[in-house]
Amino acid sequence: MALRVAVTGPTGEIGISTIEALEAHPDVTQILGMARRPFDPAERGWSKTVYRQGDILDRDAVDDLVSEADVVVHLAFIIMGTREESAKINLAGTRNVFEATVSGGPRRLVYTSSVAAYGYHSDNPVPITEDVPTRGTPAHYYSEQKAACEQVLAEVTAGSGLEVFVLRPCIVAGPKAPALAEAMPWNQLPDPVRRLVRAVPVLKPPMPDPGTPVQLVHHDDVASAVALAATTTTAPPGAYNIAGDGLLTFSDVGRALGARPVKVPHVAAVATSEVLARLPFVPSALEWLHAGRASTVMDTSKAKDELGWQPTFTAAETLAALAETVD
Ligand SMILES: NC(=O)c1ccc[n+]([C@@H]2O[C@H](COP(=O)([O-])OP(=O)(O)OC[C@H]3O[C@@H](n4cnc5c(N)ncnc54)[C@H](OP(=O)(O)O)[C@@H]3O)[C@@H](O)[C@H]2O)c1
Asked: Atom 46 of ligand 1 has which residue's CA nearest to it?
């Protein structure tokens, strides 16, 4: 089999590892990557990858990209941004990619959705399986948009014959995916202050732990799931939950990333989330607090049994690998 794979967002935290996995796959002969900023695949030693600058909001650019591919991997997205800016790219841009893929020549689409598409609902089962509806949580822009994109995907691809693989990873981390560590407010302090805060125990900022369990997955394991979805000849299309084995706590994450864990009652996290949801204006960054209000632990047995995916890093090993990169 000689596969040409088009990838939107190949330069992101998942993108870099995904291209490495596709470069190493014997069935993949060419990779066409597109994102907005300049990037040189040769600097990474990649030999199958051709990169072009382009915006998924530009339908002609997306049409061009997918017209040359057998498989489209859609990763381009705005995760940390304002509600308004992210909505434009994530909704209109993602629709462009889905529509172009349906009307162009590719036979398969791999889309990285997220655990956030399920939403943070206390009546979701624990663990969450892929048949749970992706309702999203409207008060959190990212969750709302991830749920909306799955809805658009279902509408656009209905009856098309396209093989659609939807991956729903939990939080991705590791040495090449530092966004989780960078999002911690104390890691945004200027360098000498940040080092001081990390070195002196009494200065360590508190990290509230409402008892909600946390899953993590290593970027290389997400990449192997994307590569499997792009190349499999045996696994059925559909949705697959993706998470490393084992559960962590907010305390584990805080401790590893330089904070002082403080246990708080779970009702406090729910109450904070409910107050935030009622406020007329909430800074988009604060909307992420909704993620702590309910368990979003996913069952990954479908990815293991049907896709043949096996994570090589546990959640704890992923966190340790991330923590090693934080100085
Ligand atoms: N990271 C996680 O924890 C996580 C967890 C679950 C699911 N996911 C999902 O996995 C996918 C990839 O995430 P990631 O962590 O790799 O994101 P990322 O690190 O933020 O990278 C985003 C990529 O998209 C590109 N991009 C953004 N806007 C674009 C536009 N308008 N046109 C073309 N390219 C654009 C970026 O490059 P330019 O800025 O240069 O355009 C970059 O290559 C997303 O759908 C995300 O929601 C991520």
From this structure: 77
Tokens (6 digits) for 102: 């349906």
Name the nearest CA neighbour of 290 among 306, 277, 303. 277
Ligand 1 lining (C-beta closer than 6 Å): 8-9, 11-15, 35-37, 55-57, 75-79, 89, 93, 112, 114, 169, 171-172, 179
Residue count (the chain): 327
Distance CA 236, CA 243 (A): 19
φ, ψ at 156 (rounded to 5°): -70, -35
Bridge partners of 209? Answer: 263
pLDDT the model gives residue 202: 73
Q: Is 67 exposed, middle or buried (0-12, 13-18, 19+ CB in 10 A)?
A: middle
Q: What is the CATH number of domain 3-172+217-243+297-311?
A: 3.40.50.720
What pLDDT, in 10s, does the model give residues 171-208?
999 999 999 998 887 777 778 777 777 777 777 788 88
Distance 197 CA to ligand 1 centre (A): 30
Task: Output the 3-class SS for 152-220.
Answer: HHHHHHCCCCCEEEEEEECEEEECCECHHHHHCHHHHCCHHHHHHHHHCHHHCCEEEECCCCECEEEHH
Digit-coded pLDDT (tens) for 10-64? 999 999 999 999 999 999 999 999 999 999 999 999 999 999 999 999 999 999 9
Ligand 1 mutation pick, 75, 89, 94, 221, max ligand atoms within 8 A of CB: 75
